């Protein structure tokens, strides 16, 4: 009883001088996770703090990233004592946070407990629950809940609900089922948006279902949904997989003509297309495109090009890229650098191999333990 009264008095008498910003900054800076949990729970007594979704997201992300799931549960269960829990938006946030931590069963518990807290369950909380199971990779459960809960609770699925189901099918690799949802949406009078189409395009093109991807691309135009950068990137990936690098270049230029700025992933897709075709000169040329952009090469860029350079015997460029990796502080897998070292040794370029091993061992941002193979 004392604790309840104390909390009520503290909340009612929140001093105007309490700075939520300073509390949030203190939590961001806290390195001891156990202390973070204690401070977070104490701060939760402040009504204004509980409205700050960003600090909730960040704290749960840090705890889940450190695999401290017991502490995730500790701070989220702690929230149930506040009157906010009767607000659907607040409950949906807890469901979402559990989902982002891969704790779908706890998300379901929050959802199931909502009626006893006199909290309405609408499509908002339904979508949060489906997303929780999606993030936990429980794709079959997403479909099961989609087919049962709306009828049981008299909830009408909306665009977000359908998009979540499509995403689950695509992640599962059930593309026929994903495409059937598109038809179901049409029957229900729910218009697909760019998220709907991009989810399908990404899944189909990336998994080699190029023809089906092309059909969805046409449907996208028929629905007057304009392709965005993500749409084009998915198609570029599809063209690369089909070894149609020339068409990928044409599509890349088309993006620029319609006023869309290609991102690094678009450039990487074109590079991948030329690598798949075995065209070293064009792959290197398009790597040069990155220098003309606002981007730095990504781990995936090097992972595509460096093995190809070794395969083609262009060890000079491979060495340059290794040094670039170190200079740009790009974290790549050690196996990528080891591949170059092994190739250099096999070609008798021992001093060059030793140089890469030494830089890997002494650079400050990420130490790589590379081995210098014995000369054959």
TrEMBL record:
GO terms for biological process: chloroplast-nucleus signaling pathway; mitochondria-nucleus signaling pathway. PROSITE patterns: PPR (PS51375). Pfam families: PPR, PPR_2, PPR_3. PPR repeats lie at residues 158-192, 193-227, 228-262, 263-297. GO terms for cellular component: chloroplast. Keywords: Endonuclease, Hydrolase, Nuclease, Repeat. GO terms for molecular function: endonuclease activity. It comes from the Eukaryota. InterPro entries: PPR_rpt, TPR-like_helical_dom_sf. NCBIfam families: PPR (TIGR00756). Belongs to the PPR family. P subfamily. This is Structure-specific endonuclease subunit SLX1. It comes from Vigna unguiculata.
